[in-house]
Amino acid sequence: MHDPPGRLAAVLGALASTADLANGFPLGKVLRTAILSAGLARHAGLDQAITADAYFLAQLRYLGCTGFAHEEAHHYGAGDDVSVRNTMVLADAAAKGETLGRIVRGIAPGAPLIPRTGAI
């Protein structure tokens, strides 16, 4: 039996809201990203199936990102997994100086000096 697309959209929408909360995003960010992705696909003249794929894929983007949050917080963020994800999501491995600056400014900003230095 095939699930109607509306039901899939409702389930992914609920999961997207939990991803917003888990990642420290403003509520609705993932859904807005999905709507924007579908709009860009439509504007590019892509067919309805690809436009729908763009919508659903954008919602799936952050769903697994909290699966290892406890490890990420411990090893890389001095207890702050959200700062790690929000800092590294825009990091560009080709721009090492910019990435280092982003890490120094963004990783565990409220942590004590020694744990923060270790996280960086």
What this model shows, in words?
By secondary structure, the chain is mainly α. It folds into two domains: 5-60, no CATH class; 69-119, no CATH class. Helices cover 68% and strands 0% of the residues. The chain is elongated, with a radius of gyration of 17 Å.
Comma- or semicolon-separated keywords:
120 residues
Summarize this, please?
The chain is mainly alpha-helical. The chain has 7 helices and no strands.
* Helical amount: 55-70%
Sheet/helix structural class: mainly alpha
Indicate the radius of gyration in whole angstroms.
Answer: 17 Å
Number of helices: 7
- Which residues form runs of ≥5 with pLDDT under 50? none
What percent of residues are in strands?
under 5%
- Counted up, domains total 2
Q: What is the 3D form?
A: elongated
Please, what is the oligomeric state? single chain
Q: Which whole number gives the mean pLDDT?
A: 83
| Number of β-strand runs | 0
Largest sheet: none
How do the helices and strands follow one another from N- to C-terminus?
HHHHHHH
Span between termini? 50 Å
